[in-house]
Amino acid sequence: MEFFLFGIFIIFTGGIISIFTKEKFKGIVFLIFAIALQFFILPTVFKILIYGGQIESLLMFPEPIGFAYLRLDPLSAVFALIISAGALLFAIYSIEYMKMYSGKKSELSSYYFFSGLLISSMMFLILAQNAILFLIIWEVMSVSSFFLVSFENNKPEVQKAGIYYLAAMQIGAAFLITAFAFTSASSGSLDFNSFRNVLNSSNGFSTLMFVFFFLGFGTKAGFVPLHTWLPRAHPAAPTGVSALMSGVMIKTGLYGILRIILMLDSPGAGLSYGIVIISLLTAVYGIANAIAQQDLKKLLAYSSIENIGIIGLGIGIGMLGLSYNKPEIAILGFLGAILHIINHFIFKFLLFFGAGIVYSKIHTRNIEKLGGLVKILPYTSYILLIGFLAISGMPLLNGFVGEFAIYLGMIEGFSVSNLMLNITFIVSFAGLAFIGVMAVLCFTKVYGICFLGLPRSEYKTDISEESIWYKLPLMMLTILILVIGLLPALVLPIFYNVVQEFIRVDVANEFTNILHIYRMISFTTLGFLGVVAFFYLLRYFLLRNRTVTQFKTWDCGYQVQSSRFQYTGSSYVQPFLQLIAELVPQKIKLDKERVLFPKEGFFRSDNQDFSERYIIRPMIIYINRFFSMFAWIQSGRMQQYILYGLIFLVLILIWIFWV
Amino acid sequence: MKFLIILILIVSPLFFTGLINKVKAIWAGRKGASVFQPYYDVFKLLRKGEVISRTTSFVFKVSPAVNISAMFFALMLIPFPLVGSLISFPGDFVLFAYLIGISRFFMLIAALDTGSSFEGMGASREITFSTIVEPAFFLIIGSLALLTNQNSFSTIFEMLAFSSVYTILVKILFVVSLFIMILVEGCRVPVDDPDTHLELTMIHEVMVLDYSGPDLAFILYSSALKMVLISSIIANLLTPSSLDVGPALLIFVAILLAISVLIATIESLIARSRISHVPQFIFLMTALSLIAFGVITFFLHGNYK
Amino acid sequence: MNNILIILLGTTMLYVFAVSRIEAYVKTLAFQGVLLFLLVIIDIRQMSWLNIAFLAVETLLIKTIIIPFFLLRVIRKNEIIREVEPYITQFYSLLISVVIFIFGFVAAFWASESNTDIKPLYFGTSLVLIIASLFLIISRKKIITHILGYLMLENGIFLLSLSVANEMPMLVNVGVLLDFFVGVYLFAIFFNKIHEMYDGGHIDVLTELKD
Amino acid sequence: MITLVLILPVFLGLLSFFAKNRIVNRIALLGTALVNIGVAASCWFDYHWYWMPEGLQEYFRIDSIGLYFFSVMAIVFISVAFYSLSYFRQHDFSVKQESLYVLEILLFEIAMTGVIFSTHLALLWVFVEATTLSSALLIYFEKKKSSLEAAWKYVFICSIGIALAFVGIILLSIGSSSIDSLFFGDLYKYASEINPFWLKLSFAFIFVGLGTKVGIAPFHAWLPDAHSEAPSPVSALLSGTLLNTAFLGIFRVQEIFVYAHQESFTNFLFQVTGFLSLMVCSVFILKLKNYKRMLAYSSIENMGLLFIALSLGKTGIFIVLLQALAHSFSKASLFLTSGNILYLYRSKKIDEVNGLLKKDPRTGWLWIVSMLAIIGMPPFPVFLSKFLLINALWTHGLEWLAIPFFLFIIIIAYGMSKTVFKMTFGDNEEHNSRTKLNLYAYLPQIVLLIILLIIGIYIPQQVLELINDIVNSIN
Q1: Which residue in chain A is spatially nearest to B300 when comparing CA positions?
Q2: ipTM computed for the complex
Q3: pLDDT of residue D105
Q4: CA A299/CA A235 separation, integer angstroms
Q5: Is D140 within 8 Å of chain C by CB?
C-alpha cells in the first residue's frame, strides 16, 4: 500500500516539479514521472486483480475526519489501472500537443501542475473509505479539472464553459455532501463500512439516499439529464485534458455508483429498473445528439454520454441479476460494465487524440470544413478507422466484446419468467441494437466526412506528418484494442475478481462458460479476418495483370466541379434527424428573398440540447426571477434600513407576546 | 451434411437473383434472360479490370472484401432444420447482426470515400433505414429467444414447433416482418428498385456506383447472399421440425425459392413508394414484431394470471 | 412632584412633533436634560453619593449644557434655519405621537402588573421617549434631526435606567457616558463633513451606495 | 496579561499620534500585533493564568472561548498590520495621516479585545459601542464622498442598534432583579431564576442591537457599504474580527438561554435570521458591480451560517468555532487581496478588472484560492463546517432545511466564482504595465491560507482540545 501511495505522491510531485522546469522540458519531466507512476501502481494493481483480495492501510486524522481507511480492492484496482494508463498516455501526448501553446509559460506550468493534481486525486479517491476524506478529494478533483478545462481562459467561450462546469460540479457535490452527511449522521460513523446497515435498512430513507448518491455521482458521470456540462467542457479543454476527463475522470462517477452498490446486500428491483431505464435513455439521447453535432470534440463528448449509458445498462442488468438472485445474469451485467469502462477508456482516448491531432494540424474542429484527411494524415486516419470501428461496437475490436457481454446478460435474463423483467430486457435488447446502429450512423458520418472524400476547405499547404509523440500513444491504444478485441478470452480472467466482488456467491463455472463463448467469438472473428484477407488477395490477383485506371469519380457521368459539392455531414444525417426531430430540436435560421430570381440566401441550422433547453434553462430563469423580486431591499435609504430592524423587532415582540 | 448445405447456399445466391429476374420477365410477358445470367455477369466482371476514382482511398478497395466475407460468416451462423449451424454458441445471433453491421459500415464509408454527393445520398438513406430495421430484427430474435427460452440460433429453431396457436400466430407475424426486412436489406420494391441506376430515389445501387470489375462482382454476390441469409431465417421459422432430415431440407429449399418468387411477384405488381413514405413501411416491421412480442408475453405470463 | 416632571418630559415629545424649527428641537433637548437632572436630584434613593454626583454631572453638565450648545454651534455654522422636512405631515405625526403615548402607558401599566419593581410612570414615559424618537428619526429628512432624535432616544434610555431599581457599576456608567459623548462628537464631525461635501444635510443625498 | 493588551496599545497609539514619525508608527502597529500574538500564545499554555489589578479583576477574564476568538483576532490583526505597511506604500500618505491611522486602528483593536474579555454584559455593550465609534473614522479614512456616506450610515445605524441593545440590557436587569447583577457568571448561575418573559423580551432587543453589529439580515444593510468603502486592511479587520466579536456578544447572551433551558426561542430566531442572510446574499451576489461589495455580502452569508450553526446545540458550537475561524482568515485574505487589485486597477468595478492572472499572477492566485476557501472548497475548513452543518441538521430532525441551504449556497458559490474567474481570467490589453507590489502585499494572505489549509486537513491537537473545552464548558 505504501508503494501505491508513493506512486500517487510521485505524480503529484511531477506536477509540481514541472512548474519549475524550463518551458520545453516541462512535458518531458511530467512524462518521466508518469512512467515512474506506472512502476509504482501497476504491480500492485495487477496483483490485486489477478489474485484477488485487498490491501488497506489506516490513516488517523483528528476530528472531525477521524480514522480513515485506504483500501485497494479489485474494483478500485480496475479504476487505478485506467487512471495510471491514462496518465501515461496523457503525458506522452501532451508533449507534442502543448507545443501549440509554446510561449505561455505560466499557463503551461499550471497545466502540468493541475494535471498532476487531477491524476493523483483520482488515484487517491478510489482508495478513500471515509466520507469526508472522499468528499475532499472529490472536490479537489473537480477544481483541478476545472482549471484544466479553462486552460485557454482568454477565450470567452472557454471561460463560460469552465464556469458552467464548475457550477454543475457544485450541484453534484451538493447531492453527494447531503447523501454522505445524512448517511453518516444516521450511521454514526464516517467509515464506508458503517454505511452498509443504513443503506440496507429496508425503509424509504435508504432508497432516498441511494437516489441522492446516484444523482451526485451521475452528474460527474454524465447521466441524462445531468449531462449538460459534458458537451460544453470537452470542446473547451485542451484535447489531452478532454481525453483524460472523458476517458477517466467521468468514470470516477461510475466508480462511486459501483462502490455504493457494493454496500448493498441486494439492490432493490425498483432501483435496478430505474438505473436500466435512465441508462437506456442516456445512451439513446447521447448518441442521437452526437449524430447531430458538427464540432468534432462535442460529438465525441456526446458519444461519451452514450457509452456511459451503455455501462450504466450493464450495471443495471447486474443489479437486476442480484435483486432477482440470478448470479449468471449479474456476472454478465457487471462484467459487461467493467469491460466497457476499460474499452471506452481505450477508444475514447484514441479518438480524442485523433481529434486533437486533426485540430493541431488543420486548426478546425468543424466537421463540415474537413475532408480527405486520409491523404494528408494517413497514419492517424488508418488508426482512427480502427478506433471508430471499435466505438461502433464492431466485431474484431474491443467495443464488441463489452457490448456482447451485456447482450448475453439480457439473453440470459430471458430465461427468468417475470413479466416486468422480460419486457425490460427485450426493450433494452432492441434498444441496445438501436444504439449500436445509431453509433454506426454517427461514426460513419465522422469518418466518411472528415477523413475520406476531398477537403471541404482550404488547408494550409505544409501540413507535416505526425510526430512520434503522436504516433506512440495511438499505436499503444491500437494494440490494446486489437488484443482485447481478438483475444478476449485472454483478457477477461483479469476481471474475474472484480465481478466476484459484486456477486458474493462463487461463479467460477459460469465464468468459464462465458470464457468459452468468447473463445468461440474470437475463433469466428479471426476466421472472418482470414477470409477478408483471402478475398482481398483474390482481388489483388485478379487485378494483377488487368488495367486499373485512376480517374475522377464517375458518379453516373456527373462531373463534380468543386469539393464543395460533396455530401456534407449534416446532409448525411438529415433524414435520420427528421425521424427523431423531437429528441434533437433543431434551430434553423433561413433567410432568402422570395423573389423570382433570388440573389443570395443564408441558411444556418444548429441543434440544441433537449434537456438544457427544456429543463435546465427554464429552471435557472425561474430562480433568477424569484431572486430579482427582492432586489429592492438594498435601496440606499438609511431610514428604510432602520425600519427593517424595527419591523423585525416588532415582529419578535409580537411573537413573544403570543407565545 | 452441414458443409454440403452451406456449399449449396454459397453457390446458390446468384441463382435466386436470376430466378427473381426470370419471374419478373414472365410477369412482364417477356421470355427473359436465363436463370444463370447473374453468374455470367459476375464471372465477366471478375475477368475485367477496374476504374477507380482518384478521390478514393484504401477503404474503397477493402470494403467489398469485408462485405462479402462478413456475409460468408453470417452464413456460418445460420442453422438448418435438424442439422443445426456450423458455428453455434449462446448469443450467436448478436454476432450475426453485427457481422451484417460491419459490412454495412464499410459499404457506407466506401460510398462516402468517392466524395460524390450522389453516393453520399445513397449511404445516408441506407443507414437511415437500417436504424429502423436493426432494432426490429433484434426484437424478433429476442422474442424468439424469450419464447423458446434458448440462447442461440440453432437451439431456438429446434425448439420452435407448431405447438400452440400462439406460436403459429407469432411465426406468421415474424415471417411477415422478416419479409419486409428482406425487401429493405435486399433493396427491393417498394423500398428500392434494383433495376434502375439513375434515379434520385436510389438507395443501394447508388452507393456502389463507382465500383467496377471484381469489386462490383463481390458486391453483387454479397447482396444476393444477404437476401438468402434472411430468407433462410424465414425458412427456418416455417419448416416443420416434426419431419426427418431429407424432407425438412427440401421444404427449406422450397421456401427459399418461394420467397424469391414472391419477391419477384411483388416487384412486378407494386410500384415503388415515395422515399418519404418508406420509413412508415419499415415501421410496419417494428409494429408487427411488437405485436408478436405482446402475444408471446401473454402466452408466457397470461396462463397463470 | 417627580410624576409632574415625568409628564412634562413626556409632553416635550409632543412639542417636538408640534414645532418644526430645529433650534426649538435643540432647546427641547436641553429642557429634557434639565428635567432629567431634577428627576435624579429629587428621588434620592439609597444610592452611593458618588453615583448621584456622577448622574448629576452627566445630566446637568453634558445633557443640558455642553451638547446643546455644541449642536447649536454646529447648526449655526452650517446655517440651517430652514424648516425640518418630514415625510409625514405635522398633523399626522402629532396624531401618531399621541398613539405612541397611549401605547406606551398601556404597556407600562401592563408591565408593572407582571413585574412589581418597576415604576409604571417612569417606564411608560421612557418607552414613549424611545419610540417617539425612533419615529422622529424615520419620519424626518434632515440629518441634524436624526442626530437630535438619537439624543432624545438616549434620554429615553437614561430615564428607563432610572426606572430600574438596581444600578450599573461605576465603570459601566463611565463607559456609557464616554461612548455617548464621543458618539455625539462623531455625529457632529460627520454632519459637518456631509455639509461640506454635499450642499445641505439632506438624507436623500446619501443614497449613492446601493445595489 | 489582559492589561497588557488593553492598556499598552493606547500608549503606543497616543505615542505614534504625537510623535508623528513613520518609524514609531510602524513600531507601534507591529508591536501591538506582536504583543497580541505573544499574549495569545502564552495563554494557550494555560489560559487560567492571568494578572489583573484588583479593581478590574472581575470585569475582565480570559475564558476558553474568549481565548479562541482572541487568538483568531490576533492572527488577523497581525496580518492586517503587516499588510498596512504595503498599504502605506501603495498610497503615499503623509506622516500625520499614518499616525492617525495607527491610533484609530489600535483603539479599534482595543475595543474589540475589550468585547472579547469583558465578563459584564453592560461593559461588553460599552466596548461594542466603542468599536463602532473607533472604526467609523477608519471607514472614512480615504476621505471620499462615498466613504463618508458609508461611514455615516454605519455609525448611525449601529448606534441606534446599540442603543436598543442597551434597552435590552435594562430590561434584562428588570427581569433578573432578584440576581441584581449583570455578570455573565451570575447570569449563568441563576439563569433559572430569571423571569423567562423578560429574558426573551430583553433578548429581542439585545439581538437586534448586537445583530446590527454582526450584520445579519435584516439588520445587514449598512454592512456592504461600510466594508466596501473602508480601506482594504480596515475592511479585513471589520469583516474578519469585528463581526466575530459582536457575534461573541450574542453567543454569550444566548448561553443564558441554554442554562435557562429556553434555547428553543433563540434557536428559532437564529434559524430565521440565518436563512434570511443566506437569501439576502444570494439575491445580490449575481447582480453586483463591485467586487468588494461581493465580499461584504459573502460576510453576511457567513454570519448567517454561524447563526444557523449556533442554533444546533453542542455540535453546532463546534461548527460555529470552525466556521468563525475559517471565515475570518479567508475573508481577511480576500479583503487584503482586493486591496492589491484596487491598487493595480484603480477601480472597484468588476467589469474593469480582467486578466489578473496575467497582470500579477501572485495576486491572481491569492484571489482565486481565497475565494475557493470562502465558498467552501476542500481542503479548506469551510467545507468541513458545511458538511458538519448538514450532518447536524439531520441529527436535529431539520433535514428539510438542507434544500434551501444548498439552493442558496450553490447560488452564492456560483456567483462568487463566476465573478472571481471573470476578473482573473482573460487577457488585459489595456494595462499590461505590471506595477510592483512589495512582499507585505502577499505574505499575510499566504500565511493565512496556509493556516487554513492546515486546519482544514489536520486540526492541531491543542486547537481541538480548546474547542472541546469550549463545547463542554456549556453545561
Answers
A1: A417
A2: 0.92
A3: 94
A4: 9
A5: yes
